[in-house]
Structures are given as structure tokens and as C-alpha cells.
Amino acid sequence: ASVQQSSDTYATVKRALEAKDTKYADKSFEVFLQGSYGNDTNIYAESDVDIVIRTDSLYDYDTSALNPQELQIFNAAFTAATYSYADYKGQVVQALQKSFGKNDAKPGEKAVKIKASGNRRSSDVVVASEFRRYYSGALGPLYIPGIFFFTPAGKQISNYPK
């Protein structure tokens, strides 16, 4: 029953995040499970369902492994995003609070915490964006995609792979 409950919780939260009336509905994003549920290795019946919503409409990057020529290529091709992480996170929090209520969907240190209710398990929604770690490739700069997010204190946390 707990696996089904987790699956139902994920489906409910995913539906709320993918609603057509969210302010970020026109952006490119993906919703997926993270951690033990995503890997089908969850053994704790009471653990939170960890969900990530990741946009690639904005991204951050690390170019420290590129040589000067590759960095020049990167800089020539790069355009700054007009959509900020703070805007995106605010819009996701707003969508979750619209679906689950302000008391049941609260931003925490690393994720938006959604309280358990009825058959819905508690869940953590990480509001993330794409992070690209660039490296030297045979034909120029390549990157490994990951995710990043900011804590309320402004600390950036990045993970690889997504």
C-alpha cells in the first residue's frame, strides 16, 4: 500500500506542477522523482516523496575546466536569461499553494514541504534549474547537465547528474 500511496502522491503533485494555468506553463520544464523513489530503492514506508521540478529556461554554469579558446567560444554563444531563478521559484511555490493551500505547502531550506493529507504522503518539491559543468571536448566545449537551486539564504547547491 505504501508504494501505491507514494505513486499517487507523486501523480497528485506532478499534476499540480504541470497545471496549464501556472505562470511558468510556457517555460520548458520537467518533473521527476529524486532519491529512493526515483531509483525504486525506497525501503522506508514513512519517508517523504522527493520530487524535482527542473526548468531549462534558465541555467547556471561552471566554465573553469575550459581553456581560453573554448571560453571565448562559450562567451560568444552565451546569452543571458531574462527569467530569474527567484521568479521561477516564486511561481512554483504559488502553484503548489494554490493546489494544496498555504498551510500545507511551505518553502523550506532546500525544498517546498507539502504536508501529508488523507492518502497523500508528505513530499518535498525541489525547485531546480539546469546547471551545466563545461569541459573540453574534441570539437569544442561540452557539458555535463545537473541541477541547481538556491537556499533562502542565497547559497547555491548543485547536484550531478540531474
From TrEMBL:
<dbReference type="InterPro" id="IPR006116">
    <property type="entry name" value="NT_2-5OAS_ClassI-CCAase"/>
</dbReference>
<dbReference type="GO" id="GO:0016779">
    <property type="term" value="F:nucleotidyltransferase activity"/>
</dbReference>
<protein>
    <recommendedName>
        <fullName>Polymerase nucleotidyl transferase domain-containing protein</fullName>
    </recommendedName>
</protein>
<dbReference type="InterPro" id="IPR043519">
    <property type="entry name" value="NT_sf"/>
</dbReference>
